[in-house]
Design brief:
Blueprint: H1 3-33, H2 40-69
Helix pairs in contact: 1-2
Keywords: Membrane, Transmembrane, Transmembrane helix
Transmembrane segments: 12-32, 38-56
Length: 70
C-alpha cells in the first residue's frame, strides 16, 4: 500500500469518526430533550460522513483489485 493511500485511509477514518461523533451528539441531545429540532450540525455531520466515504472509495477499489487477483 502506497504512502498516499495510507494517508487517505487515515483521513477517511478520521472524517468518519468525527462525523459519527457529531451525529451521536445530535441524536443524544434529541433523546435527552425528547423533542426533535433541526440543527445545522446534522447537515455538517452528513457532509463530513459523505466526504469520509468519498475518501475511502479509492482504497476500497484497490482492496477489491487486490482480493480479486490473489
Amino acid at each position: 500500500m502506497s504512502n498516499s493511500l495510507k494517508q487517505q485511509t487515515l483521513a477517511a477514518i478520521l472524517f468518519l469518526m468525527f462525523g459519527g461523533l457529531m451525529l451521536g451528539y445530535e441524536l443524544g441531545s434529541w433523546i435527552a430533550n425528547d423533542s426533535w429540532r433541526f440543527n445545522g450540525l446534522l447537515i455538517i455531520a452528513a457532509c463530513v460522513i459523505y466526504y469520509g466515504l468519498h475518501l475511502l472509495r479509492p482504497v476500497l477499489k484497490q482492496l477489491d483489485h487486490f482480493l480479486n487477483n490473489h
